Amino acid sequence: MKAMAIIPARAGSVGVPQKNFRELLGKMVINYTIEAALQAELVDRIVVTTDYLEMRSVCRGFGIDMVERPADLADGVSRMDDTLRHCCEAIEAKDGYRPDVVVMLYANVPVRAEGIIDKAIHKLLDTGCDSVQTVETVGRHHPYWMQKLDGDKMSKFIDNQVDRRQDLPDVYALNGGLGVVRYDCLFAAAGNSDPHAFWGQDKRAIVQQEHETVDIDASYDFFLAEAILREKRGEVLS
User: Is pTM, for the whole model, over 0.85?
Assistant: First the structure.
């Protein structure tokens, strides 16, 4: 079994400019993802796909590959599955290497649970499923407590009589920690109008606790990530 980790890292970002390459506790945000991939025992190849060409020397320093991401795959509307396929094709054209499993690791995630990459690959192999992604339980933003507005007139988004949090049905949200998919599923979805089709039919989840994964989508996420990383180091925050 060959598993390749692909780290998509666009230079542009609407919410936080250059978020993948900003410094967090002395190193770039993307470096945390690279290090997590290097620690995974079941990953035998790591590739950064990016339009930020300054990453080439960084990747060389880590001993991993970099694929130059074309402009049409690096804008705000490009699809992730197209980017993953382009990366796979570039590596195969270069070295003749084709993985059985593709591990997608977002570059803007400096906090991941230890061993989660190997755990997800094992789940894929043990269950025979098409893909595995990490999720976490939805709390106060549960859809039963969401509202819709007609002007300023409010009504429930989903009609229900639940009043207590403990009575809410379990609902889970993708947290961006990782996605593991079979190569054949990824490429079978080429040309499909559904941008999520590449995950296949049999999709499995690993349920995580809140903040086991932290992705940088807004400036305040840097503060949360820093606090968690410092706590993992055993530092006492005052």
Answer: yes
